[in-house]
Amino acid sequence: MESDAGLAPEVESILAAARDRGGGGERVAVDARSLTDAFEAAEDDERVPIIAEVKPTSPTADGERTDDPIELAERMVEGGAAALSVLTEPEHFGGSAETLERVREAVDVPVLRKDFVLHEAQLDVVAADVVLLIVRFLDEDGTDDLEDLLAAARDRGFQVLVEAHTAAEVERAVAAGADIIGVNNRDLAKLEVDLGTFPAAADAAPENVTLIAESGIGTPDDVARMREAGADALLVGSAIMDHGGDSDVAANTRRLTQAETDT
């Protein structure tokens, strides 16, 4: 695939690395924990459904967390996270498949594998409950078709979070058969965040789709804004991880999961 001139250089670097990575070898089969059931359980417990992200660093982070990722994951669950997201991209996010495997063994909530998956073989790396497919990076020269990759992931037992950024991408995701769609508030062209992105794009999704707001969510007010716009759940990384700091990730998680009961 040729370089996308519309992408930020940091994202293009991540994609270049992803194109060069192969699969894990043997075909993965997963007995997945239900993400939507976890969201419903959080709602029943009067918690905002939050997917808390174990992300040691990122191109947009001010620093990194060197804490044991297993301890961080357990503390996030203690803080009320309905599910976890674990970065497995090694070069830009400090993640690994081994970390995801260890986290999934340590917790009883669904775990999302956060990575740039471009080809079916890249699904066969590690067992996770959910995998991420990004609309913008599929259906292009040198990548697999979104609909085919979605089917291949489900055939292995994965649930699939399909990420979009615009209403048109949401429509593409729905047409491909996605039933869990994340709307990323971060524009990958400039790496800028606009919390108006989710409301604008979410309107394109039918009512039977589970909608997740991603990126830029850091305060209870942000949580309220996304929920009012129709978010069934929220994916939060930096505000919980506190890159470059050492705050308690359980407290950071709880501040968001309890946002609706504290107002």
Automatic annotation (TrEMBL):
Signal sequence coordinates: none
EC number(s) per entry: 4.1.1.48
Pathway: Amino-acid biosynthesis; L-tryptophan biosynthesis; L-tryptophan from chorismate: step 4/5
Domain Indole-3-glycerol phosphate synthase: start-end pairs: 27-255
Record GO terms (molecular function): indole-3-glycerol-phosphate synthase activity; phosphoribosylanthranilate isomerase activity
InterPro entries the record matches: Aldolase_TIM, Indglycph_syn_Halo_TrpC, Indole-3-glycerol_P_synth, Indole-3-glycerol_P_synth_dom, Indole-3-GlycerolPSynthase_CS, RibuloseP-bd_barrel
Stored Pfam families: IGPS (PF00218)
Database matches in CDD domains: IGPS
Keywords for this protein: Amino-acid biosynthesis, Aromatic amino acid biosynthesis, Decarboxylase, Lyase, Tryptophan biosynthesis
Domain of life of the source: Archaea
Matches recorded under SUPFAM superfamilies: Ribulose-phoshate binding barrel
Reactions catalysed: 1-(2-carboxyphenylamino)-1-deoxy-D-ribulose 5-phosphate + H(+) = (1S,2R)-1-C-(indol-3-yl)glycerol 3-phosphate + CO2 + H2O
Classification via Gene3D superfamilies: Aldolase class I (3.20.20.70)
Top-level EC class: lyase
GO terms of biological process kind: L-tryptophan biosynthetic process
NCBIfam families: Indglycph_syn_Halo_TrpC
Family: Belongs to the TrpC family.
The protein's name in its UniProt record: Indole-3-glycerol phosphate synthase
Origin species: Haloarcula limicola
